[in-house]
Amino acid sequence: MTTGLVLSLDAMGGDHAPQSVVDGAAQFLKGRRRSVRLLFHGDESELAPLIARHAGLGDVSEIRHTDSQVDMSAKPSDAVRRSRGSSMWNAVHAIKDGEAQVAVSAGNTGALMAISKVILRMKPGVHRPAIAASWPAPKGFSTVLDVGANVDCTPAQLVEFAVLGEAFHRAVQGVARPTVGLLNVGQEELKGSQVIRDADALVRAAGLDMDYRGFIEGDDISAGTTNVVVTDGFTGNVALKTAEGTARLVGGWMKEAMTSNLLAKAGAILLSLGALNNLRARMDPRNVNGGVFLGLNGVVVKSHGGTDAQGFATSLRIALEMADSAFLSEIETNLSRLAAIQEPPAEDAGEPQRETV
Amino acid sequence: MTTGLVLSLDAMGGDHAPQSVVDGAAQFLKGRRRSVRLLFHGDESELAPLIARHAGLGDVSEIRHTDSQVDMSAKPSDAVRRSRGSSMWNAVHAIKDGEAQVAVSAGNTGALMAISKVILRMKPGVHRPAIAASWPAPKGFSTVLDVGANVDCTPAQLVEFAVLGEAFHRAVQGVARPTVGLLNVGQEELKGSQVIRDADALVRAAGLDMDYRGFIEGDDISAGTTNVVVTDGFTGNVALKTAEGTARLVGGWMKEAMTSNLLAKAGAILLSLGALNNLRARMDPRNVNGGVFLGLNGVVVKSHGGTDAQGFATSLRIALEMADSAFLSEIETNLSRLAAIQEPPAEDAGEPQRETV
Fold this sequence. Notes:
homodimer, globular, 46% helix, 2 domains, alpha/beta, Isopropylmalate Dehydrogenase, 16% strand
């Protein structure tokens, strides 16, 4: 912590680890001017030769050896009991010990969430952490949460997500007053599930100092209608993966169109000299790979389990942005507002709050 | 019914009705060889001049006048009480009266569903109808249901959707034995909500004669991993609209890439002589516009409320395919299997069924 930022990596987590982690770290460091140090948690005999392949990587890296790692298919409850001393456990613990600012893992999501909760603990006022994803929009990125941590959510949890997501978006995207929407199946108040309608009523009744815009629909996410999109982890996860699948399908169609005949091929060549690579990069899900756990005393970034080096490099960029941002202080500010809702003064209530928790 | 097929149209439903309905009908008829007749339900003084603009349209059309129409923002419960004699009501009633084979409306979804249930009644064994959408996949289309009729679903309802969707896919896509998947957030059995896990257990225990493949995830929809994707109406609606939004965003990026500099512009021109228009058509959500209500004694197709003429024409094509298909007999066959689950013989149960309804 004395010079620059330190990122703590679970080097054994992910389908292609440890190679994807080490190669991704090397990609991430390329051309970067600021000094960043990396802690690799994992099997030294595997990691040392992989790191040695990249010139300069060893100079900023430190290997913290452990034999143990969390199984990709372990249940979260088992993972916590059995994972003490594993690469994932140690990667997160380095945050608590003050050795690093952010932990990154491509391992088992449920286990990473459970371990993070046990080691870092939740911030006061947060029931359960959420996973936030940065989602491409016409201008910059939207923040969508939860994308998988909480399958069933109460209205009160959705309000917490709004508060956490708004702080995250301000800190990471630099928007002074992010707009917030609640994902639903229709904009009219009569539509949607009871939980969503109760959450909407709860946000409105709470008098939060937040630019809340009410209900939005699935197509509003990519349209960037609001900066922050609040939803439960089931719907958010399905939406995120559906968007990835759609981008992949359309990418396949593009490729097909560009090789379907000679004229099209010639056009594609000119286009690729022009701007096609930029378009491909924007459509590549590896360039938005990294979910951030919100609501903990510390920052943990989850990379896709199946990611390659390029995707892991993106997660490290996101981790660095988080470490560099005012995120933790923004969260503190927003949580003090949340505390005010959770115990509202009697004269504050404009309309009666429903029973929700 | 004496000569050819008859489609019954709610000419006043939709944001751009009646013009979008009449112009869409004209587009739909262009170049069609088989004789199709159209019943337009709505305001004759508005409809007659619109129909007269299209040569030949009047010859196959009949206007059934009514002054009344269902408000786009009406609550479903109010709509049923107040809508008797409206353009939507009359369009659906023509099916019951045997005057037409399929009804099409771009009006209020909840009202259309409520009116359809009251007039046509559900088939025996179906709790509530579902809306099925045809979703572009690498080869042909997948069927996704429910995409909006049922916000909260029980496990038994999800099993019904599987049965209805499988019959629909076989009839409309001509696949002899469609594969069926249940949309979840992970493929491992330990993931997902209780409702989804119970539905999975219920399908497996029921011993349905169906090629059920278990859990799939959001990115499997566009990948075409299974022919039929079963989900609740909330998740399905969000997924459908998210995919539309993603396709629109990527389309915007493509346009940007193709006009960003001279080389790219030249490439785009060659490409559009080649295959770009085909790609644009595949990405256009208006070309997959039309949700089909399943589980009723009759076929009703719902077009997007905000659709234009081109999108409405697509809904009419879908309606015609339905009218032409063995859909209703396929549904009958599948529902007899469903009846077998609902009252299973004692010796049939391979494993105990959970309490689900």
